[in-house]
Write a structure and sequence with these properties.
The protein is mainly β. The protein has strands spanning about 1-5, 10, 15-20, 30-35, 45-50, 55, 65-70, 75-80, 90-95, 105-110, 115. A hairpin with an 8-residue loop joins strand 9 (about 90-95) and strand 10. It starts with a strand and ends with a strand.
């Protein structure tokens, strides 16, 4: 099971840190993907972190603003989001799977947490 937290309402330019905590399996063995879906839009891959990947964004617009990390002891992954823009508003999902950073490779999915960037 994966549970996301940390979403909410933030003003443009603000920051949020999303958490993704796993139970029943060891998150560090998997590729951890972060995805988002805005109303009326398709889901998109935000980025991943994994055993062989130190964490990188998959969307050009988040590079330099979003950082991926994980705490093995806490069995938790994090998505630090800085300089948030209204276009970042979406439901954010974390997922875990192997062997690659893609939705089709993910075996476990969280239920999502809503991020709303608005003044």
């Amino acid at each position: 099971q994966l549970v996301e937290s940390g979403g909410g309402l933030v003003q443009p330019g603000g920051s949020l840190r999303l958490s993704c905590t796993a139970s029943g399996f060891t998150l560090g063995y998997y590729v951890i993907g972060w995805f988002r879906q805005a109303p009326g839009k398709e889901r998109e891959e935000v980025g991943c972190i994994g055993p062989n990947d130190g964490g990188r964004g998959r969307i050009q617009s988040v590079k330099g603003r979003f950082t991926f990390s994980q705490d093995y002891a806490e069995n938790t992954a994090y998505l630090q989001m800085n300089s948030l823009e209204p276009e970042d508003s979406a439901v954010y999902y974390c997922a875990a799977g192997l062997p690659e950073c893609s939705a089709r490779a993910m075996d476990y999915w969280g239920k999502g947490t809503l991020v709303n960037v608005s003044s």
